[in-house]
Amino acid sequence: MRRRQLLKSIVIGTAGIASSGCVGATKERLYSQADGDIDYDDTFAKKEWGYVRHDWDPPTGTDRPVVYTHDGYMGASFAANGPTHYIRMPDDTLIATSVGVYSAIPSPDLGDEYVHVQSSVRATACSAGDASDFGEVYDKRSHGLDGHEIIEWLAARPWSLDRIGLFGLSYSGMTSIRVASTQPPSLACVSANVIMGDLLRGRTFPGGVDNLAFDNWLNNLPTLWWDEESQDIIPEQEDPFCRQHRANRDPQTIIDQHPTWYRKRTENDGYRRINFIEMAKQIEVPTYISVGWQDGQVGQRGGPAVYNALDPDPIHPGDFPGRRPPSPELRESPKLLRATNGVHGTAWRALGRDRDGRRWFDYWLRGENTGIMQEAPVRLDFGMDTKDSHGTMSLDGFPASNTDWTRYYIGGNHELTTERPTTAGKETYTSSSPDYWYIDDLTDKTLLSYWSAPFEKPRVIAGPITATLYLQSSAENTEMYVSLADVEPGDEAVTYLQRGMLRASHRELNEAKTLRNEAGEIIRPYHTMVDPTPIISGERYRYDIEVFPLGHIVYPGHRLLVNIHAPPQEEGPDPARYWEYDPLDSGSENILSYGGDTPSSVLLPMLEWGSKRGNRTSPLPPEPACGEPDGYTCMEATLPQ
After folding, report:
1. Residue 279, strand partner residues
2. 327 and 414 share one domain
3. How far is CA 357 from CA 35, 111, 166, in A?
4. What DSSP designation does 202 have?
5. CATH code of 584's domain
6. pLDDT tens-digit profile of 129-153?
7. Taking the CA of residue 278 as centre, how many other CA atoms within 13 Å lie in the half-sphere pointing to its CB?
8. Would residue 289 count as lying in a domain?
């Protein structure tokens, strides 16, 4: 018997047995610790598992597919009429849940053929609980196990199928990963979109550089959740449970007890607990991931890293009671990654393209052969939100197995070339932070700039990027920020594409987690972030810098531009609210060595457009206007002569 069959039989066999769980539980005590004095008779009916609104109409039919979202933002408390149910958890906490055809978050166009279910994370909005109940952001109990319990409750409803889909965007996308990692027996599939991966390396301290904006966002979450004015749209006046749950909470206590481990620049137990890449390794069902390459809120690193961490052969929904999807030959790896240019909301809109979200759930929950699992596991979208420059490329993985790893070497006279310079050289810049990473004056002495020859044919950058720099500094610590840009013919219009950064003291690599290609080259460095070690002034070191992954077409006549400088004060325009740095800004003199035995370079994952070696593509789309694709910023720049 497969694990999932065994767990399912256990759930069914224990229904009706007295326990502290919510599925099939019978209790003598039918009130949570906070609800003993609530007068609910006019609005809610008492059940063995919690409470339901008197006027709630259950969905018709006996096999309605259910898609569930466990959310800390816009959960059940923000649905059209507020919570329809309060579901009891094993510790008696009541979780506000809304069941219906309405979804408070952008859904994948499922319509009224599905049942939409949303819950508010405990201790937020209408759900019961206080600071000790909430724990911390993405806590296993509040953000994971509660969702596990509710999935099993849903599977036992007479109006639902016995397998449940899990859906989330942004915050709820990451909560979906947390819930799925607890392996609910009745969970069939997951759609987790625009998500983080490793909070430490991807958002709060990328490369050890202090991202103040995200630190401030995390620090202000308690105010966002528990400030009275921010919650004034909750229909608590008509909901006695919601009213009492909120009255029983002391927002200031929750704010005061909010963990602060995320303010530390090094790996710690808090960061280890909130690592979605590690959580993904525990997921056993088909999973759909989407990412936007210019997403300033959750970043670009998480989606691909979570996708690659997923089990390549998860348990299929056909392995436990319910209808098996019709495809006779499921993919060896039923997980999908969909990536596009654009910001946080672009990937949301991309869900509607080709009705990906609907086709995913129709396949795994309704058993309809929508064709989605006959598609390549990875699809890149280019030119999203342009008038006529949209194109796609299908890959067998990320990075693709036929990636042409192309190293661009830094050379004298601002050269960026695929030929390794035999003659060694040096260049100096002053480590002083610019205002933004979109730099228009490339003649400034606070940065170094290098650009390639014009491309003769279209090439695609598709995968992780690594910059390797040989550098010495006059200070005992310094920071390096490497950006990649596309220069249009005429050398005036520049589109900044991606960036990466590293504080010198955080240079140590974790060799076991550093990714290498078949040639042994580092394609994604993984820094230990455990024991920062200062450098010796004037001594040269090798630095391997992770530049965040990317999908981008370089058109004929265009060049690639690499800038090296200190981290900017902030990034803009779109990521500005979420990427504001506290750089060292030491004013140190940094000397970059290149050529000879110190081959400073950038390793790029390149593909040909329309390659016959496995990459299915649409026709090459017309070149978009500079800055036209969503998330791209076009600006005039002055290149050194």
Report:
1. none
2. no
3. 38, 12, 11
4. I
5. 2.60.120.260
6. 876 777 777 888 889 999 999 999 9
7. 9
8. no
Burial (0-12, 13-18, 19+ Cβ within 10 Å), 398: buried
| Distance from chain centroid for Cα 472 | 35
Q: Which residue has the tokens 């042994």?
A: 520
Give the C-alpha separation, 247 to 83, whole Å.
Answer: 17
Would residue 324 count as lying in a domain? yes
Q: What is the mean pLDDT of residues 596-610?
A: 95
**Residue 90 reports pLDDT greater than 90:** yes
- What is the mean predicted confidence (pLDDT) over 352-377? 86
Could you tell me the residue range of the domain that residue 96 belongs to? 3-188+210-266+309-333
Chosen domain end from 333, 348, 380:
333
- Model confidence at 574: pLDDT above 90: no
Burial status of residue 344 (CB atoms within 10 A of its CB: 0-12, 13-18, 19 or more): buried
CA distance 174 to 190: 11
Between 134 and 55, the higher pLDDT residue:
55
Q: Please, where are the H alpha helices in 263-375?
A: 269-273, 276-280, 302-309, 344-352, 356-361
CA gap 545, 26 in Å, rounded: 56
Contacting residues for 259 by C-beta, under 8 A, at least 6 apart: 136, 137, 270
pLDDT of 7 above 50 = no
